[in-house]
Predict the structure.
Amino acid sequence: MSAEQHPVLEVENLAVEYRRGRRRTRAVENVSFDIADGETLGLVGESGSGKSTIGKAILGLAPVTEGIIRYRGTDVSSLTRAQRRALTRDVQVIFQDPHSSLDPTKPIGYSIAEPVQIHEPAPKAVVRERVYEMLCRVGLSEDAAQRFPAQFSGGQKQRIAIARALILAPKLVVCDEPVSALDLSIQAEVINLMAELQRETGASYLFISHDLSIVHYLSDRIVVLKGGHVVERGSAEEIYRDPQQDYTRLLLDAAPVPDPVVQARRTAAREKAGLSARTDAIASSIR
Ligand SMILES: Nc1ncnc2c1ncn2[C@@H]1O[C@H](COP(=O)(O)OP(=O)(O)O)[C@@H](O)[C@H]1O
Ligand SMILES: [Mg+2]
């Protein structure tokens, strides 16, 4: 098979163990999934279930203790230098907190241009044009390039992080809770933008969130994680409409309610209706 015939990503029996001195934490165990071209795989689970660890293992930021991660059919732990370079260009990441990808001391045009400077260096004017084009695609104006991260709202900063992640037309984007820190109305905007850019570019997404009601909008298929293990998987519709596990049902509205009575009432109502009030609010503003 040529590389193009393989899925973008295959994760096979992945285990990740963190070691700190003599202490070992098995964060992920026996996790398998693949992601096809242009597909979005949703990875959902409660806090601490191992979602970010899987994203990090794919990005080479967490150890692969067991199993194999393949990019286009090739084990990422045995890449040549040229293949590794291609991987750092083709696989990008969007984090919950855009601060981690935007240097507060540099105008944002600099941060968006950086991946281009590293992987596809070109004359200044050419790079500037690419940055302007990307700003426009994420709904910001050209003059934003001169401004600093602190001058933007949370939603705008996430648009800037998306521009930086997508400027090289990556094949796969690991999106780790990309809207979890944003207001509800802004969450919908950013999700719509991500869906639109995916249609334009054909990129695949690994979309990570603790909130199933968010995950199901973008996902084709969903994998549910609990304690580092896969507990449920299926098409986004199946998992959303007819979750087989109580655990999965609770992820439909992950915003915790401190009052157990309110929580119980909400859970009952949710089970009756099959979805949450919060989902309705988001649904009404997602195309
Ligand atoms: N660098 C690390 N060292 C040790 N343990 C870690 C590290 N990162 C995460 N963990 C542990 O691994 C488990 C999974 O964490 P994480 O992947 O961040 O979960 P999630 O993203 O689903 O909230 C948790 O128990 C967490 O405490
Ligand atoms: Mg996480």
